Amino acid sequence: MDESVREASNLVMIPANWLLANAGSIISAILVLLFGWYLARTASRFVEHLMPRAYGVDKNFVPLVSQVTRYGILIFAVITALSLIGVASTSIYAALAAAGLAIALALQNTLANIAAGIMLILLRPIAIGEFITGDGVAGVVVEIGLFGTRLRSTSGLYIFTPNQKLWASAITNHSREPRRRIDVNVSIPDSLDIAKARKILLRVATSDKRVLIDPSPNVHVDSFSGASVAMQLRAWVATPNYLSTLYSLTEESKIALTKELNAQSEHQISVTPDPNVPSPETK
């Protein structure tokens, strides 16, 4: 019985003696971890505020560099803390290498997201502030992070998509080109004057100062269906004016056609934006 008590006492005293003998190192390690956590957060915020103001620095790099800075300082703090409590540096690096290999195998998708995020920033198919569609989502790019890209939809919803999925999909950037084409579909009864309808639509387009002269607006007959004629108005505008001009031309075309073609109640005139062409926010 006494032997069992002594063994139990030894089991308690061994870690207690170690803690007492290394109390200074343990306290130092804790302080290093706390300081590292504080420094990582401060440095990350400093990068976020400093880089956008630096000349020639692309704002798309800011979230990625900020996150890399934060995690890098945290890892360094952990290694330093372990060294202070007596863990050999070679053992730490060996453990990190083994852990890195295990993590790489277990988190292949996460590493793929990091690589895809770097490629998105380097090749720049998207940029902060641009409206894009890709991976089945659409919205204004808010942040290109280390693991995923954050978007804001036209209705103000928060969208987060992994970088790998976005990189592997076809990306359509609605804001990158300086000008865009507006398509307005018009359907009128075939009993009405097509030539007159074309003149009305062209006048509506050319009277809007946001519509570009070159390429000039045009109206063509798209198809015939039963007793109706499908026409389409095409006009080019500067990309920032796309959405407002689209709405305006759609409304003005309907008003002008109904009034000037003397359409009766039985005449169905339909004017709609082309459903095949998205009408996103471009600002």
Automatic annotation (TrEMBL):
<keyword id="KW-0997">Cell inner membrane</keyword>
<feature type="transmembrane region" description="Helical">
    <location>
        <begin position="20"/>
        <end position="40"/>
    </location>
</feature>
<keyword id="KW-0406">Ion transport</keyword>
<keyword id="KW-0407">Ion channel</keyword>
<feature type="transmembrane region" description="Helical">
    <location>
        <begin position="92"/>
        <end position="123"/>
    </location>
</feature>
<dbReference type="InterPro" id="IPR011014">
    <property type="entry name" value="MscS_channel_TM-2"/>
</dbReference>
<comment type="subunit">
    <text>Homoheptamer.</text>
</comment>
<keyword id="KW-1133">Transmembrane helix</keyword>
<dbReference type="Pfam" id="PF05552">
    <property type="entry name" value="MS_channel_1st_1"/>
</dbReference>
<keyword id="KW-1003">Cell membrane</keyword>
<dbReference type="Pfam" id="PF21082">
    <property type="entry name" value="MS_channel_3rd"/>
</dbReference>
<dbReference type="InterPro" id="IPR011066">
    <property type="entry name" value="MscS_channel_C_sf"/>
</dbReference>
<keyword id="KW-0472">Membrane</keyword>
<dbReference type="InterPro" id="IPR006685">
    <property type="entry name" value="MscS_channel_2nd"/>
</dbReference>
<keyword id="KW-0813">Transport</keyword>
<feature type="transmembrane region" description="Helical">
    <location>
        <begin position="61"/>
        <end position="86"/>
    </location>
</feature>
<comment type="similarity">
    <text>Belongs to the MscS (TC 1.A.23) family.</text>
</comment>
<dbReference type="InterPro" id="IPR010920">
    <property type="entry name" value="LSM_dom_sf"/>
</dbReference>
<protein>
    <recommendedName>
        <fullName>Small-conductance mechanosensitive channel</fullName>
    </recommendedName>
</protein>
<dbReference type="InterPro" id="IPR049278">
    <property type="entry name" value="MS_channel_C"/>
</dbReference>
<feature type="domain" description="Mechanosensitive ion channel transmembrane helices 2/3">
    <location>
        <begin position="68"/>
        <end position="108"/>
    </location>
</feature>
<dbReference type="InterPro" id="IPR045275">
    <property type="entry name" value="MscS_archaea/bacteria_type"/>
</dbReference>
<comment type="function">
    <text>Mechanosensitive channel that participates in the regulation of osmotic pressure changes within the cell, opening in response to stretch forces in the membrane lipid bilayer, without the need for other proteins. Contributes to normal resistance to hypoosmotic shock. Forms an ion channel of 1.0 nanosiemens conductance with a slight preference for anions.</text>
</comment>
<feature type="domain" description="Mechanosensitive ion channel MscS C-terminal">
    <location>
        <begin position="183"/>
        <end position="246"/>
    </location>
</feature>
<dbReference type="Pfam" id="PF00924">
    <property type="entry name" value="MS_channel_2nd"/>
</dbReference>
<dbReference type="InterPro" id="IPR023408">
    <property type="entry name" value="MscS_beta-dom_sf"/>
</dbReference>
<dbReference type="InterPro" id="IPR049142">
    <property type="entry name" value="MS_channel_1st"/>
</dbReference>
<dbReference type="Pfam" id="PF21088">
    <property type="entry name" value="MS_channel_1st"/>
</dbReference>
<keyword id="KW-0812">Transmembrane</keyword>
<feature type="domain" description="Mechanosensitive ion channel MscS">
    <location>
        <begin position="109"/>
        <end position="176"/>
    </location>
</feature>
<dbReference type="InterPro" id="IPR008910">
    <property type="entry name" value="MSC_TM_helix"/>
</dbReference>
<dbReference type="GO" id="GO:0005886">
    <property type="term" value="C:plasma membrane"/>
</dbReference>
<feature type="region of interest" description="Disordered">
    <location>
        <begin position="263"/>
        <end position="283"/>
    </location>
</feature>
<dbReference type="GO" id="GO:0008381">
    <property type="term" value="F:mechanosensitive monoatomic ion channel activity"/>
</dbReference>
